[in-house]
């Protein structure tokens, strides 16, 4: 039997317009940003620490006041000036912030009690949610008696119990160990789909963002650098920062002679430069887009270091007159340090690094 | 069998025992003095409970007064101190920091000065001056910082900040989250503060001695009175009464505190 979703019709669209935050000491936590999130969509705010992702989440929650001129809409309602307690949101905190003096069940129904729900309704919702997040048998335990993963599930159940319009997740996996993280993020992704709830998820972990979110908003220095699906950001980064933050890249520098000749130097060989990169004095290349072949007259490199990673090997390649390149190959291929290999590169996969020669 | 500490350092053991005897002896001698017929003749004069009975007759009312006063003091510091502690914990203004320092003044300034100031300003209000409320005011002024400091430190913990925000996102207004989430979460600190306030109030002498009138005597004031005006045996019997009354109360409170801290501690 399909579980009845405890949050069915409430999900709402979020419209963020010119939303900014300046702290009292003058620090600019967030420069004016725009972002639209569809009803039922899961968006991850991804970026390094201090990039403003948590600030944006707290503005959505109403835990911080946005600068004048900012506008946040939940559906058709302008919530910019509404305090957190009136926004109709659910939030999962990094530390989970469970109430230690209450049982698991009391934690979960706290929001309902505040809204004056009957004891009967509280019991029913608690039952449904405890099934949903698989906490059966732990109803009467206190948070201190639970494991990290169980606490996270209580926090999630508590946040969705109030049937929020928007679910906000502030680094919900940060307090868990790596192994648990991996299994729980699949679980969380699955749960969010099932609830069909509009969710904004803050994280600095790209794997987590990719696993959970429909779209990523990659942030840096108080700005949103790019919004899109994980794949589009990875394949078509709008900014070098995006390319460097998601996955790994090799950077190839181009001299003015290379640029005049329309080539990209690759050790002892050269690649014809695609038209759209003609003016770039640096281009980037993902490790998986470099194919190792038997030397065939093109560019060659010497393997300097080999790191075994299980399913694959990471190879550091030495090229003439260039910084080393990082390449990944299948773990069963027998490469050894000192081997000379040929390089084949699909130039369509090259990414722009600097905007142009003058910007350098 | 010798314990490991005596075998390792007999000198340390002997020193410890000597210091213990030195400190406990006055208490024992004082208690014994209240139980013998004549202090000068010692135990050979025979044991008696008549001094204790006499103390109970003359000063019995101070026991109830002291406990009642201490409980009232605990209630007042709770009502005043817990909201004040919250306000101080959440405020970042310089004024709040200054106020926190100011709050400590009654502890630093000799109680006699505080009492004198209270008498100068409010001494003319006869009905106030003649009631226990006057002493209660003094005790609250003196004990409030102990409650505020203890509880304020608890409110400042980062997990408390997160808990308050969590309650807000779940729709709880200020009163709901203060009484429903925050106060229960800092309950161990509040109980510790209550125990401290009760203990200080029970034993307070300086302030009380200045503020009291013959109708409003507490245990310590009665003790001073008996030392000053009666036989040494009566004064000593008073000490015994004080210990017999106060120790069980303190033990019960301490047990209660431990219980609550165990149950609600994070």
TrEMBL record, chain A:
GO terms for molecular function: ATP binding. The keyword Transport applies. Residues 14-246 form the ABC transporter domain. InterPro entries: AAA+_ATPase (IPR003593), ABC_SmlMolc_Importer (IPR050093), ABC_transporter-like_ATP-bd (IPR003439), ABC_transporter-like_CS (IPR017871), Mo/tungstate-bd_C_term_dom (IPR008995), P-loop_NTPase (IPR027417), Transp-assoc_OB_typ2 (IPR013611). Gene3D superfamilies: P-loop containing nucleotide triphosphate hydrolases. Keywords: ATP-binding, Cell membrane, Membrane, Nucleotide-binding, Transport. PROSITE patterns: ABC_TRANSPORTER_1, ABC_TRANSPORTER_2. This is ABC transporter ATP-binding protein. It comes from Yanghanlia caeni.
């Amino acid at each position: 039997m399909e579980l009845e979703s405890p949050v069915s019709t409430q999900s709402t669209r979020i419209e963020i317009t010119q939303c900014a935050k300046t702290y009292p000491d003058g620090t600019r936590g967030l420069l004016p940003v725009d972002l639209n999130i569809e009803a039922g969509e899961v968006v991850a705010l991804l970026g390094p620490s201090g990039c403003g992702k948590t600030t944006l989440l707290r503005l959505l929650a109403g835990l911080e006041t946005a600068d004048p001129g900012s506008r946040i809409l939940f559906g058709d309602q302008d919530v910019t000036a509404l305090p957190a307690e009136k926004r109709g949101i659910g939030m999962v905190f990094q530390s989970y912030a469970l109430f230690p003096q209450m049982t698991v069940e009391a934690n979960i129904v706290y929001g309902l009690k505040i809204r004056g729900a009957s004891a009967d309704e509280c019991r029913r919702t608690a039952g449904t949610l405890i099934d949903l997040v698989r906490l059966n048998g732990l109803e009467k335990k206190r948070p201190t008696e639970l494991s990290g993963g169980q606490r996270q599930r209580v926090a999630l159940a508590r946040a969705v119990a109030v049937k929020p319009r928007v679910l906000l997740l502030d680094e919900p996996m940060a307090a868990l160990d790596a192994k648990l993280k991996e299994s729980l993020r699949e679980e969380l992704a699955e749960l969010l789909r099932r609830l069909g709830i509009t969710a904004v998820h803050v994280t600095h972990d790209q794997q987590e963002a990719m696993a959970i979110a429909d779209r990523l908003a990659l942030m840096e220095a108080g700005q949103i650098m790019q919004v899109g699906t994980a794949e589009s950001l990875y394949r078509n980064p709008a900014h070098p920062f995006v390319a460097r933050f998601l996955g790994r890249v090799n950077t190839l520098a181009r001299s003015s002679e290379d640029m005049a000749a329309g080539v990209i130097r690759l050790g002892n060989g050269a690649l014809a430069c695609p038209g759209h990169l003609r003016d770039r004095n640096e281009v980037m290349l993902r490790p998986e887009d470099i194919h190792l072949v038997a030397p065939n007259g093109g560019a060659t490199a010497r393997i300097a270091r080999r790191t075994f990673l299980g399913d694959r090997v990471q190879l550091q390649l030495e090229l003439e007159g260039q910084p080393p390149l990082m390449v990944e190959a299948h773990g069963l291929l027998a490469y050894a340090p000192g081997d000379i290999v040929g390089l084949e590169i699909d130039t369509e996969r090259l990414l722009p690094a600097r905007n142009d020669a003058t910007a350098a | 069998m010798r314990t490991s500490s005596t075998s390792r350092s007999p000198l340390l053991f002997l020193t410890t025992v000597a210091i213990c005897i030195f400190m406990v002896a006055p208490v024992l001698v004082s208690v014994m003095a209240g139980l013998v017929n004549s202090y000068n003749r010692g135990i050979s004069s025979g044991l008696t409970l008549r001094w204790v009975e006499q103390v109970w007759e003359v000063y019995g009312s101070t026991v109830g007064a002291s406990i009642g006063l201490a409980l009232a003091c605990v209630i007042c510091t709770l009502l005043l101190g817990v909201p004040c502690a919250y306000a101080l914990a959440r405020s970042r203004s310089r004024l709040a920091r200054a106020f926190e320092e100011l709050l400590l003044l009654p502890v630093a300034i000799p109680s006699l000065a505080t009492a004198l100031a209270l008498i100068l300003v409010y001494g003319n209000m006869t009905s106030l001056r003649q009631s226990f409320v006057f002493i209660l005011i003094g005790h609250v002024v003196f004990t409030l910082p102990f409650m505020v400091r203890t509880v304020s430190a608890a409110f400042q913990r980062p997990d408390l900040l997160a808990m308050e925000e969590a309650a807000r996102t779940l729709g709880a207004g200020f009163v709901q989250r203060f009484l429903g989430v925050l106060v229960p979460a800092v309950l161990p600190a509040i109980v510790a503060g209550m125990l401290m306030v009760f203990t200080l109030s029970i034993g307070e002498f300086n302030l009380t001695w200045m503020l009291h009138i013959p109708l409003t005597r507490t245990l310590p004031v009665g003790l001073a009175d008996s030392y000053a005006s009666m036989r040494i045996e009566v004064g000593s019997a008073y000490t015994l009464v004080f210990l017999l009354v106060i120790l069980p109360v303190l033990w019960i409170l301490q047990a209660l505190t431990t219980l609550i801290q165990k149950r609600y501690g994070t």
